Amino acid sequence: MVKLDGKHIYLRALEPKDLDFLYQLENDTSIWEISGTLKPYSKKVLRLYLDNAHRDIFEVKQLRLCICTLDDQCVGLIDLFDFDPKNKRAGMGIVIAKAEDRNKGWGAEAIEILCNYAFTMLDLHQLYANILEENKPSIHLFEKLGFDQIGVKKEWIRTSKGFKNELMFQKINVNAS
């Protein structure tokens, strides 16, 4: 198994054993607002997704990895999406599943590992992240890791309580050729 190792966590590809974790996370209505999910996912649909998770980022334009502790507990997911090799950019998203697992540094380490992978292995010039304006912990996290706010998408995300602004953050690979 190929892993992207950190000091306290590692990133790995999705595996069939992740079905229950993925089922719980994708059906957690508290994160639907940030994921754009509109309906529950069945285990059958997620099993089909896992069966195709091995496909190459250049083919499917996305990469989803599990964030695992060193004792092999899957605590979250991190993604590259809208992969654009011509313009050398991709979006990045992250979620730590349980509130009690947040603020332990795992998210920051996962972002650093994936940024390094994206900039060195995929030769990307830039990464971006879209964050709800009210999500102060995520804003702080991405700013701490060198992402700059580059814009505001006004009333971008529709919720049950109305529309919310989404901020766009960007990190340029200063070592890119």
Automatic annotation (TrEMBL):
| Pfam families linked to this entry | Acetyltransf_3
Q: Where does the N-acetyltransferase domain lie?
A: 9-173
| The protein's name in its UniProt record | GNAT family N-acetyltransferase
Organism ancestry:
Bacteria, Pseudomonadati, Bacteroidota, Flavobacteriia, Flavobacteriales
